[in-house]
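re: that chain from earlier
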Amino acid sequence: MGIFSLTRAGRIRRHAIATALSTLALAGVMAGGATTARALSTTAAGPAGVSCPAGNTAGAVISSSSWTASGVPWRRVGRGWILGDLARSQSATGPGTLYLVSPGGQRYHLGRAPANAMLEDWSGTGADALFLAQGPNSTAASIIVLNLHSGRGTRFTAYSGTPFPGLSFSRPTGTAVLFQGGATPNGGFLPVQRFSLTGVRELCYPAQFPQAGAIDGRFLENASGTELVFDTQNGLELVSNAGRPIRALATHGPGGCGLLGWWSSQSVLTDCSGQLLAYPLSGGRPDQLTSARDTAAFLGAWHLASGNYAEAAACGSTWLERLNRNGTATILSIPGAVDAGTVQPLGTYGDQLPLLIGGGCDGHVAFSFVDWYNPGANAARTVLGGRAGGGYVTDAILFGAG
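^ sequence. v structure.
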């Protein structure tokens, strides 16, 4: 079991930390460095209430002049592989370098990442990566679809009322892009939109439901791409891929719960007032994974044969906990990273958790690397950044968990 996609709350938190730790400003895309773009746009039209906003631009062609992916064994890329964006150091400027890492730790150099952009998702075919570039005071979100085989792709813009919009490939193969641009200046969240890979809008999903109320920005799509779950003012709503409401999963009243990710193929994970609950898609009663005896705020949870594990957070730092049967939790210390300020699981693979380990919001630890961690054996090995070839990992995604 375990989470099938990286939690959006965790990704938003990770972006905030990355912004605080890095001098890489999200001021544009493909500016400087070896990547070129045509028809660059830096503004987007504003929203019309909570309807689908106007102002997205059609795709512009992008390409990289430094792409060296010919040596990648593409037929083997799949479960257990990691895509990472590696900078020379925490303070380095300019675009990072993209790497693929096999389950055994073999690193494959791809080429330059889009400048000033954050890695957001990896398609279910393994062929494409999704990036976001948005200036801190801009409402124009630049969405970049990059083909990892060739280093070529497209870029388009959409209106965003937040520095950290929701962005992902559609499931299962990444033939479209799902985007949620935060709230409007007049209140209320913008609807989730589905775009083609070249920026043509295909669908606006509902933003209001009879029982669950208005959406509050967070969403998840299931692994088959047939259904989505929206976080709403009064609970959760299950919606078909075509935008048809199916049922309210939870109607707990205003506030209190936040959608985190998939707990299984038939249940979603939420943080409800500091407790982890798994709501079944059938609409039944939730399973409680924690109790009031564990007082942490949670950003995600995962299941292995050795137990249940959660990413907890406080004061700008995150750590890994083992959830005990009696409702308490045990904080785990990762070998070789006892001074880490952030410990973020990327998903699960076999009996292991890949972890993105780095400094907290205060920047007191100037490192960021990816470890494979076996919590049952308390064993860790670094596969990207740090001791594994050097460098500072700004972002990483586990295949099938993005």
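The radius of gyration is 20 Å.
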